[in-house]
Write a sequence for this structure.
């Protein structure tokens, strides 16, 4: 039953899944980084307190996070069509994935940056560091380990979301699981795709944690 | 005398205003700090000394009064100008506050990056400074691989990187053991001599001030209780806050209550004479040393002792008379309980 066509299909599905996951993660980080930094910097006791702006950003991020992914997936179809030209396939799925992941990643970044010791920030201020120097030479590098761990969590979550997009023909392993395993009762294919997804998450997780450990200079 | 102060605190006030109450952390602080001084600011915890040191470089903006450094009134500066002034004021902290993800060299280069120095120049300066603080072999180590004392040395090197005129030390030795504290204080003294840098030391430990400061200010409840030369303030404390700090360090000796006790102060003059031994021989009377804290400061013996006198009024009067004749500062203590 695992003939060549099926093998090819599973292989391409894996590639598609990885493609969606990585491209979405990259785009989501591009949007989430400034939001995460803004959340930290404009807090009441932050480096540039801006109460109202912070509140609005905070609520917006929460709203983004509370919409179930499946609903979002369908709700943004018009936007997906506008950006990707169509609403199905792996490239189109990147649009809802980025929208769903951005607020989540912004929160991860926020919490990582907040772990940085206030004393170190104060030391930088005492040296006459500007806001951008503090953000990019103190906050981000000092939070490096935590940011990498957060990135690992984010990739795992986005990979899970990408599989969910299979419901609307999102491409990748999730799509195969639904098309063959669920609609056509091919339990073996469903099982194999699930196993492949589990393996992918495992690999990404251990690579991420390894990088985090390797680059952390706080432990001897 | 007559030197214009490098740092002038003028009527400094800091209030923290929250929704329903205002807490006054500092008020009416007027201080002049002369170039080249090692100036100690001492007070109990919560007295406001950490706030005070943060006001000097405007990490905390005072709510009243101002700080004048050189000829610059910090309250009139723009953010950018203030950042420039801060580059001339080094600061070290109780918890060292090194960048944990950067090695020693890169930590020292950090303030130089801020000041816009090139990377190679920065590296040269870093190795120069590491030599000064005696840590040349740790240039590529990370802070997590260093001991507390070594971390503070790196922090000192980092604070000196931009050749500042002023070094602020916020409880810089409070997280260190006594031996390391001494070596760090020794280093600060050394730097003060070599570079002529003005050092301001915030501490709650008398010993630190005695060890290296020439001037001291006592902060109590957000106010300046007393200020002056270390020898003067510590040998003749005038205010309650100062007395509390100067006398506090002894242990309770309750069973001695009710008997005559005196406090004698060594202010450097009588250092080479064995005063107590001579007194015992001369008066042929025994005294009980209840408390003694004497040490060598800048080559002079300095400190204090509390003596319990014999019950015999005549003999104890004789002792007091003897000590006074030897130019020792004697003060009778009423109900001394330690």
């Amino acid at each position: 039953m695992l003939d060549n066509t099926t093998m090819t299909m599973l292989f391409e599905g894996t590639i598609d899944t990885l493609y969606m996951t990585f491209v979405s993660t990259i785009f989501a980080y591009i949007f989430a980084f400034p939001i995460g930094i803004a959340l930290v910097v404009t807090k009441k006791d932050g480096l540039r307190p801006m109460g109202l702006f912070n509140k609005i950003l905070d609520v917006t991020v929460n709203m983004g996070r509370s919409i179930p992914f499946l609903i979002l997936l369908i709700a943004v179809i018009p936007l997906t069509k506008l950006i990707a030209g169509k609403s199905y396939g792996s490239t189109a799925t990147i649009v809802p994935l980025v929208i769903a992941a951005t607020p989540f990643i912004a929160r991860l970044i926020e919490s990582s940056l907040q772990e940085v010791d206030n004393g170190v920030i104060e030391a930088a201020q005492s040296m006459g560091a500007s806001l951008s120097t503090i953000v990019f030479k103190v906050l981000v590098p000092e939070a490096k380990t935590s940011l990498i761990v957060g990135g690992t969590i984010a990739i795992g979550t986005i990979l899970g979301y990408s599989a969910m997009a299979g419901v609307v023909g999102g491409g990748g392993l999730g799509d195969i699981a639904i098309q063959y395993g669920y609609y056509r009762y091919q339990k073996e294919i469903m099982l194999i795709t699930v196993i492949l997804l589990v393996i992918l998450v495992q690999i990404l997780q251990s690579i991420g944690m390894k990088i985090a450990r390797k680059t952390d200079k706080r432990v001897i | 005398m007559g030197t214009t102060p490098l740092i002038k605190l003028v009527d400094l006030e800091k209030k923290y205003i929250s929704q329903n109450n205002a807490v006054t952390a500092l008020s009416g602080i007027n201080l002049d700090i002369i170039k080249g001084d090692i100036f100690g600011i001492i007070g109990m915890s919560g007295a406001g000394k950490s706030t005070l040191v943060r006001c000097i470089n405007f990490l905390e903006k005072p709510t009243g009064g101002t700080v004048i450094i050189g000829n610059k009134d910090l309250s009139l500066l723009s953010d950018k100008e203030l950042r420039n002034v801060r580059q001339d004021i080094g600061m070290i902290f109780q918890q060292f506050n090194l960048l944990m993800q950067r090695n020693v060299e890169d930590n020292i280069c950090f303030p130089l990056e801020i000041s816009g120095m090139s990377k190679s120049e920065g590296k040269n300066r870093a190795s120069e400074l590491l030599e000064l603080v005696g840590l040349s072999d740790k240039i590529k180590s990370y802070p997590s691989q260093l001991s507390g004392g070594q971390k503070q040395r790196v922090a000192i090197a980092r604070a000196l990187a931009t050749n500042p005129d002023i070094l602020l030390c916020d409880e810089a030795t409070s997280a260190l053991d006594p031996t390391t504290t001494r070596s760090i204080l020794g280093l600060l003294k050394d730097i003060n001599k070599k570079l002529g840098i003005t050092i301001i030391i915030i501490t709650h430990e008398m010993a630190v001030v005695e060890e290296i400061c020439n001037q001291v200010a006592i902060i109590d409840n957000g106010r300046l209780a007393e200020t002056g030369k270390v020898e003067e303030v510590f040998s003749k404390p005038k205010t309650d806050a100062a007395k509390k700090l100067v006398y506090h360090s002894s242990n309770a000796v309750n069973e001695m209550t009710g008997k005559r006790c005196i406090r004698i102060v060594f202010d450097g003059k009588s250092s080479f004479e064995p005063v107590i031994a001579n007194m015992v021989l001369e008066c042929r009377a025994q005294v009980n040393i209840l408390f003694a804290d004497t040490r060598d400061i800048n080559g002079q013996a300095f400190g204090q002792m509390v003596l319990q006198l014999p019950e015999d009024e005549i003999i104890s009067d004789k002792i007091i008379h003897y000590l006074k004749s030897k130019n020792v500062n004697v003060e009778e203590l009423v109900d001394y309980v330690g």
